[in-house]
Design goal:
single chain; 3 domains; mainly alpha; Multidrug-efflux Transporter Regulator, Chain: A, Domain 2; 15 helices; three-stranded antiparallel sheet
């Protein structure tokens, strides 16, 4: 019977796949004590030692130290409680490793200097309170003083990153890049102007009983033209520019004239800022949203189409 059979340390090594040296090491520390000794003084182990060594190997693979393992196999400690403690510690370690991976990847991909690397590292390690402060400061710069219109509350939410506690590496990298954008004074000015444009359009829409999304209108007009291969300077584009101008004239409640076209071009140029697209792409990664459709190609087409018709 296996329960009565005694094994030499070499036989035990063959049954468990561990080396003789490893088993002797565990034995010397009392983790897997010998059951008996041979007449020549060699250590002998029963079948229980096989199961004990399997458990020790598993616990070592999971990162437990030898002192803890000995107390677990001797039933001095509850394995579930130890497992829970180590699992919590691993969560912290995993988060740290993800942060390091994200920073190192950004350094490699973007060719950052030592100073830039230091900045990226600091952004990746911000506490939750520090992240909230940075986000709030950026959103206040964009929306501050524009009133409590529920529409703006929704837009503000759509521009708020919510990085999870257990963020993936891609989310950490996206957060760092988003934070860099959010701290860029020039980008803040650009966002503020776009929000002010939007606010003015929404206010005018209330006045005439009509609210329109400028970006959606440009997408719906210029997008199909771009897809159809219509050149911005071609005659085919005339009707599309006219439709864009008519839509914007209606939004602003004014006539389609030279000044309206100037305002339209300025509005298109502000919205076509490539950082706007990147901002929403980063938000989607951070928040786990579907990747947004890029509006930059349609905006750029519209900018060219309107500008060429304003040239003398």
């Amino acid at each position: 019977m296996d329960g009565d059979t005694l094994y030499s340390i070499g036989e035990l090594a063959r049954r468990t796949g561990l080396t003789v040296k490893t088993i002797r090491f565990y034995s010397d520390r009392g983790i897997v004590a010998p059951t008996d000794r041979s007449p020549a003084g060699y250590r002998l182990y029963n079948i229980d030692a096989v199961a004990r060594l399997d458990l020790v190997r598993t616990l070592r693979d999971l990162g437990l130290d030898l002192s803890t393992i000995r107390r677990v196999v001797d039933r001095e400690l509850s394995l579930p409680e130890i497992a829970a403690t180590h699992a919590e510690a691993l969560v912290v370690q995993i988060r740290v490793l993800r942060l390091r991976h994200a920073v190192l990847t950004a350094v490699a991909e973007r060719g950052l200097t030592a100073e830039e690397t230091d900045q990226v590292h600091k952004l990746a390690r911000l506490s939750e309170d520090e992240r909230r402060s940075l986000i709030g400061d950026f959103l206040d710069a964009a929306f501050g003083g524009l009133g409590a219109d529920p529409v703006f509350a929704g837009v503000r939410r759509s521009m708020t990153p919510e990085i999870p506690d257990y963020a993936e590496v891609e989310q950490v990298r996206a957060w760092v890049e988003w934070a860099e954008l959010a701290m860029d004074p020039d980008f803040r000015v650009s966002v503020r102007r776009m929000i002010e444009d939007y606010a003015a359009e929404q206010a005018q829409g209330d006045t005439v009983g009509l609210r329109r999304d400028f970006a959606a209108a440009v997408r719906d007009q210029a997008g199909p033209a771009l897809a159809a291969g219509i050149a911005p300077a071609s005659r085919q584009a005339d009707r599309i520019v006219a439709a864009l101008a008519a839509n914007y004239a209606q939004v602003l409640g004014r006539l389609d004239d030279a000044e309206l076209r100037r305002l339209l071009l300025a509005r298109l140029e502000r919205v076509s800022d490539p950082r706007r697209d990147r901002h929403f792409q980063l938000l989607a990664v951070i928040n786990g949203w579907p990747a947004p459709q890029s509006l930059a190609p349609a905006f750029n087409w519209a900018v060219q189409a309107v500008r060429v018709r304003m040239e003398p």
